[in-house]
Structure formats: C-alpha cells, structure tokens
Amino acid sequence: MTDRLYLRHSTDKQTNARQRLALKTLIEAGAPMYEDPATSSRILSIHRKGFQQLLDEAAVGDTIRIADAARLFRSVADVLALRPVLTRRGLHLRVQSGLLSGIDLAADDSGTTMVVNVLASVLQFQRELISENTVEGVAAAAAAGKTLGRPSALSKDQAADVVTAYREGAAVKALARQYGTSPKTIRRVLDDAGLREVPDDLSALLDGDGHDESDGHDQAVDADPVVVVEVPGLVAEHLAEVADDAVREALRNGKTIRRGQGYLVRATAPVSVHVAMIEHSATALMQSPAGRKAHRIHSDRVTAARITP
C-alpha cells in the first residue's frame, strides 16, 4: 500500500509551498508526488494531467493524500465525477491534517457521501464568491477607465497580416509558429475579424481550422477529444435552457432514445462540452433524489468516456 501525494495551485503566481509543508513528513519519506501547477479548479480532477498520472500508477489499496480538499476538488460536479473512479479502483483519499484527516473521503457509505457533498458545496460557494468579487473588481476598474488584461501578443499590423494570410489559405498553427504565439491567439484574431464560425470547443481539436498543413511538423495531441455520452433525460431537460450555446447545440443534435417511461439523449461533443453539462446541472439536480441519481449517472458516463482509450 503506497501513499501518493497530490498537489495543485491555480495560477502561475502561486506555489505549492504551503502544501509541501503540510505533507513534509511524507515527502521526506519518499512518497511519490504528483503536481498540477497553474491549473484551475474548474478543470475536473480526473481530467488534470498530474492527477491522471497518479491514477495510472496507483494500485488497489493505495492512499491519495492531499494538504486540503480544495487542492483536489472544489465543486459538487468534481466530487460526483471523482468518487466513483476512486471506488472502482480501490483507492483511498485522505486530507493530511485537520478535521477531515480521520475520514477516507473515497469511502462509499452514506455518511461519507453526505460529508463530502456538503464540503464540495461549501468549496464551490467559496469559488463562486471569489469569481463574483473578481467580476465586480473588473467592472469597477473598467468604469474608472483603466486598461484591463494583458497586452496583445500581436501588433495591429501583425493582426492584419494574420487575417490576410488566413484568407489566402494559411493554417492557424503555421501562423502561430510564424508569429511566435499560440494557436488560441491566432484564432482570437480571426474571430475578431469575423472569419471563423467554428465554436472554440471544437476549433481546439481541429488542425488549422480545416486548413491542410504540410510543413512536416507533428500534430498536437488531441487534448479535447469528441466523445459520445448518453445524457439522462432529467439532465437534458435542465440543460435545455442554459446559457451555453455549445451545450444546447450538442443536445439539439443528439439522438433521443426512449427507455421505458424515461429517455436519454445520445450526445456527441468534445469532452469539454460534456464537462460543462455536469457543471451547469450540478446545483439544480442536487435538490432531489432523482436529480442526484441522474447527475451521478451522467458524471459516471462522462468519466468513462474520458478515460476510455
């Protein structure tokens, strides 16, 4: 049985120093350590590179140890996606110190489930409160006439050249290499010019937004694969009115399948869109037993689709 340490911080301006201090004894004992630096808690834990490596290397009976719960999960959706994975793999999850240190957060009993769900709800509330305060701060700064955001990676002349080159058939990734920036920056320039109609969730998967690229460079690893997930009818009904075009489009284009008195929607979309569905539906569906069951089933299906080669 091995203790495996997991550490995460949200931005490149933060460090894992406090977490390392809390886990100092285990680190000094040589426990394997897995990190996700500068990684937002909005990315479900099972989709983070460092945590995926931990899952790949862990054996039945191993214990995942974290400095505090927020380093691993900070939303109900994350907990609902994470716990079934840990249970199926026979893994334990413990916070190193504090009130929760005596509880295996991966235990599949009703008491632990209640504690973890309440904890996740509190952490999610904290995160949303931080987001609200940030939005208010940005609005206040904008009202005061302050310039917001980082400087543009491309000058106006360079942006104009990018638009011209794209119209002439240049690929997004080739343009990104030419100007020493990221494909995302190039896509943003093209979006501002009204040249693209591909949603961002899909465009990240495309090689040059449909332009052929023949310069001999290796293709990027598909980080957001398109997968098929059967969305329970109760979840689909809740998501029908959410303010997320990609989610609504995926459900609208999905195939409705009747099963007994219920139904499901077989939706084909990038993993990021399926994860967005989980996030959008978490709070509302947790209000009833049927909703919690539908949400758990949906989360398990997204998880299975994500980790299946």
TrEMBL record:
InterPro entries: Homeodomain-like_sf, Resolv_N, Resolvase-like_N_sf, Resolvase_HTH_dom, SSR_resolvase. One of its GO terms (molecular function) is DNA strand exchange activity. Coiled coil: none annotated. Keywords: DNA recombination, DNA-binding. Gene3D superfamilies: Homeodomain-like, Resolvase, N-terminal catalytic domain. The keyword DNA-binding applies. PANTHER family: DNA-INVERTASE FROM LAMBDOID PROPHAGE (PTHR30461), SERINE RECOMBINASE PINE-RELATED (PTHR30461:SF2). Belongs to the site-specific recombinase resolvase family. This is Resolvase/invertase-type recombinase catalytic domain-containing protein.
